[in-house]
Amino acid sequence: MATEKKLDRVILGLLSHENLTGYEIKKRMDTTLHYFWSASYGSIYPTLKELLKKGYVNVTIEKQGRNKQIYQITKQGSAYLYSWLCKPIEKDELRYETLLKLFFGKEAGGEQTLIHITAFEEKVKQELPYLYMAQQSLKQHQQEDETHLYYLLTVEFGIKTYESYLEWCQYAIHVLKGVC
Amino acid sequence: MATEKKLDRVILGLLSHENLTGYEIKKRMDTTLHYFWSASYGSIYPTLKELLKKGYVNVTIEKQGRNKQIYQITKQGSAYLYSWLCKPIEKDELRYETLLKLFFGKEAGGEQTLIHITAFEEKVKQELPYLYMAQQSLKQHQQEDETHLYYLLTVEFGIKTYESYLEWCQYAIHVLKGVC
DNA sequence: CGTAGCATGTAACAGGTTACATGATTCT
DNA sequence: AGAATCATGTAACCTGTTACATGCTACG
After folding, report:
1. Which run of H or of E encompasses A15?
2. This prediction's pTM
3. Using 50, 70 and 90 to split pLDDT, how confident is the model at A57?
4. How far apart, in Å, are the Cα atoms of A149 and each of A85, B16, B105?
5. Nucleotide nearest to A67 (CA to C1')
6. Virtual CA dihedral for A93, A94, A97, A98, nearest 10 degrees?
């Protein structure tokens, strides 16, 4: 998609919190950010090179142990990140295949739609505990670092919406069971 | 992105409800589907051609009035749609720039983050009335067509989540006002 | 000693947006 | 008459994923 690339700023955001390797950045994407942003190695490493060329990051090669390239954000990188953070939000996008298949539910029938909703419910139920754990841990260490406040709000956004998903699932299952 | 294309089945789904032109399909994307799926002319028209070549749709050219190409789904198209609808959901993706900027909120500060959350709240408040209207209208005409039940559930998913967004906004604004 | 995880990277390919191009018709 | 909307389409471009390629290190 030719929609404006934001990965560079996501990476800078992560580097504004701590120095990281490409591998570690990918891990953050798969854990902390995974419910609202994602990226693969195939985009992370090239973007890191780009940021280096633009002077938005520096790299330190760790010699001892593994072949590690640890990235740090530069002053220019921080400035670029900051200016983006102050701009209005351009796009919030949700792409739920579940809703798509629900919308076309008549074609496949009530039973099939129930299967999808149940699977969706299951997935949400599996993820919620991790969000609760993150919430607890962030609440306990909130005083230590100001970033924790923002992490916490993000996590609580996830909790709120996931809880409302579950409520809706209950309702939808009830309605559909009445039909088929 | 090299993630499997689903637009073909979205279009078939829409055509399973009613015959449509490319232009009208785009309109459905911008209204009914817009909060969980989107597409531009640059992808819709080529996909329509593809579907035609595969025999999943037929086209009727309306001579009187405008130059209109009305598409109908074929038996093969229905079968293809049906088999997809019965497969498990592969991916539900949420990409909220708002959450990204919130997560990196410390870099821009509490005031700036408040601006984003307020804008987000505003956007949700603007969209909710349309969902309520759709809900009312679907409830009234529910008996007429079985598809309405599925539309209704989709709309109510939107309502539930949007309402929980608003609750979270209130909370987040309260928390952030306490800091700055 | 084998496996899981750490660690980096690239090439081929797919999928989609933006911007442009064109023209008819309806409404005010 | 002019603007808005209906209506179709394409080319350039961007972005990102998948799959492949490579090798080290820690642990059991």
Report:
1. helix A7-17
2. 0.95
3. very high
4. 17, 48, 9
5. C7
6. -170
